[in-house]
Design brief:
Elements: E1 2-7, E2 12-19, H1 28-41, E3 45-53, E4 70-74, E5 76-77, E6 83-92, E7 96-102, E8 105-111, E9 115-123, H2 132-148, E10 157-164, H3 167-184, E11 194-199, E12 208-217, E13 223-227, E14 245-250, E15 253-262, H4 276-293, E16 301-308, H5 315-324, E17 331-335, E18 345-354
Helix pairs in contact: 2-3
Amino acid sequence: MTCRTTRHADWEELQVTVPAERTRAETAYDVLMRAVSDLHRRGADAVTATGLALAAPDGSPLSVPRGVPATFVEGAPCFGGLVSGVQAMGARGAPVTSYEAGDGASVVVVEGRHARWAYVTGIVPGKLWVAEHDQARDAFERAETALALAGMGFGNVIRTWVFVEDILGWYDDLNRARTAFFRERGVFDGLVPASTGVGARNPVGAAVALNLIALAPLTPDIAITRVPSPLQCSAEDYGSSFSRAIEIEEPGLRKLLVSGTASIAPSGETAHVGDLEAQIELTMDVVEAILVSRGMDWSDATRAVAYFRDAADGTAFDAFCSSAGIPDLPAIVTECTICRDDLLFEIEVDAAKSA
């Protein structure tokens, strides 16, 4: 277990990463409770958590205790057992307000002096019987309704996670649904959020599940900017509506949210098809270039998730980081389907640095 603390001007953000212990069997519930309990012991309120795990051996769905702002999606562990791990975020020193958003979803609002932060967790469509494209549309609309509980809209969203069942079967339809929704809501006139989109089933069997972070500045000294990738083209060039990274600057702090990143060439094509080690190397080089462009490096990472198409390849991540001299990252390594059938690896990273 690791805990990285990011100090805002008047409150602290705690990122707890709990990989499942490789030496003993744990359930997803066990690991979630370890993460949330650690936050509570540190005097923080849990504001959001995501667990990646297999369903229970008897096939029963993964479930989250009522009142805990968490969601589980299916991410096969790369090192045995049932659970890849849980990442949970807490807030310490700021007022926290929680809302139920229906069907197990939650909205937790952190009121800082300079900004109001909203963490939306566990959004799924209500109409599970309609086509995937329509479920995606429904999910975004329900996320919008949840954001309204915090007095925000999609213009405030800075980060999304889109967990997609059968992502290779309808990823183009998902992109069309998201792009149409963003266009209607004027997102392209402002800030296009950072995002991760991977193939992962959810407990209710919906075609898609969403988590989001939104931010409403309260003072003029909050700056939210889109950060390009020095080594890749914009994702919008090939039809995906997300930013490569988003930076939030506030008094005394810069926070960087790097989207799910894979082995994509500057042309937008997949690079190093069939070569796992080369895909990992390029992907990590791309993320490092984004970090360096903002005056950061791997030591500034506060959380990461490494996604492999095949769980058996998970050991390659530790091997690469060791050979490249990358310090121990607060990371979960899991199996999830990447958005292209020739992509073998993807990683998302958060980082923060005192200004």
